[in-house]
Amino acid sequence: AIDETIVQVTDSRRYADLLGTEEKFKIFIEDYSKEYATREEYLHRLGIFAKNMIRAVEHQAIDPTAVHGVTPFSDLSEEEFQRLYTGVRVRPQLNRKVQEEDATVEGSDDD
Amino acid sequence: LPESFDWREKGAVTDVKMQGACGSCWAFSTTGAVEGANFVSTGKLLNLSEQQLVDCDHTCDRKDKRACDNGCRGGLMSNAYRYLIEAGGLEDEASYPYTGKRGECKFDPQKVAVQVVNFTDIPVNEKQIAANLVQHGPLAVALNAVFMQTYIGGVSCPLICGKRWINHGVLLVGYGAKGFSILRLGNQPYWIIKNSWGKRWGEHGYYRLCRGHGMCGINTMVSAVVTQVS
Q1: 3-state class of B90 per DSSP?
Q2: Which run of H or of E encompasses B33?
Q3: What does the alpha-carbon distance between residue B77 and residue B80 come to, in Å, rounded to a whole number?
Q4: φ, ψ for residue B113 (rounded to 5)?
Q5: Residue A12 burial class via C-beta count within 10 angstroms: exposed 0-12, middle 13-18, buried 19 and up
């Protein structure tokens, strides 16, 4: 029976259900000894995990010679992953340098 | 230049390390380059301290005073070299072990294991990068890590990977001549990259990336370092 007074407003469960991901998530938790303090945190991480499975499929399509899938970072959002596991502070002049290089490449593409 | 080259086979690369949930990749990239340069000049491989950089290095870029080394919140390898030249050197891992958190600076100049005397930026040309790699040892590089979150193995050769959004410091340790790429219709040369996310990530902690296309900005922030020979 569906309780019409309670409406699902987040999409995390939908993603999880679409892919049948919860079993994979449980294996991921076991493999990487992950612990989540509350049920809410578990569901939140499950939602992120499901989205990352979709990202892995997208990455696999764009990058077919590599293998993409579940990694130790599959329960992190892209923003969390960048904040916690990367950390190079790019100089503004570097971005300009790359932009100039891009322009040169495009300009020389005569034939 | 040799067709393929790998500093790991020559004993110039320490075991894969784990930065943990701390944006200290810049420190690992720096120590990797210093470890390699020290090996090239002395023949000895030392395991050097990232924690010293995380705790003690607050150096800012000369042109952009906002780009400062800031422990787990990020930094730049070129800033770290300047810090090491000014501080007098780098302790080894055993005397200043990694904790994964920024703490009080406990650098002891008496315990310096390696001194840095100079460093240089390498041009964006990937043949020049290969030549410098062979000559100077493993090189500190930075790249756009967007594909690395889901990477498990193989040669990564994405059709699109932004060169402008460089956010991760790693270590270039070698290159190979032939890694098969469907998209590029044949065997493609690749870089061998040491990461700092532990051995359970990627190919036992390593990443292989297409060579010759400036892939993910790999050619834009490359540096080599020279250490003191006593």
Answers
A1: strand
A2: helix B25-42
A3: 5
A4: -100, -35
A5: middle
- Amino acid identity, position B52: Q
What is the bridge-based pairing of β-strands B186-194 and B90-91?
unpaired
- CA gap B166, B22 in Å, rounded: 17
Task: Identify whether B56 is a catalytic site residue.
Answer: no
Task: In whole angstroms, give the CA distance from residue B132 to residue B196.
Answer: 22
Query: Average per-residue pLDDT in chain B?
Result: 94
What is the predicted pLDDT for the residue at A36?
A: 96
Do B48 and B93 meet the contact criterion of CB atoms below 8 Å apart? Answer: yes
pLDDT in tens, chain A (111 residues): 566 777 666 665 555 555 578 999 999 999 999 999 999 999 999 999 999 999 999 999 999 989 999 999 999 999 999 999 999 977 655 555 555 554 444 433 443
The reply to whether B198 touches chain A by the CB within 8 Å rule is yes
* Partner-chain contact A88 B166, CB within 8 Å: yes
Nearest to B164 among A64, A67, A95 (CB): A95
Q: Give the integer Cα–Cα distance in Å for A64 and A56.
A: 11
Q: Which of B67, B6, B13 lies closest to B37, judged by CA?
A: B13
Contact B228, B116 (CB under 8 A): yes
Interface check for B221 against chain A (CB to CB < 8 A): the answer is yes
pLDDT tier at B84, thresholds 50, 70, 90? very high
With a pLDDT cut of 70, the percent of chain B lying above it is 96
Of the candidates B175, B165, B160, the one whose C-alpha atom is nearest the C-alpha of residue B143 is B165
Q: Are A95 and B164 in contact (CB under 8 A)?
A: yes
Q: Amino acid identity of B31?
A: T
Decide if A59 contacts A67 (C-beta within 8 A).
Answer: no
Closest CA to B169 of A76, A85, A72: A85
Find tokens 């340790």 and name the residue.
Answer: B173
What is d(CA B129, CA B133) in angstroms, rounded to the nearest whole number?
Answer: 6
Containing A106, the helix (H) or strand (E) segment is helix A92-107
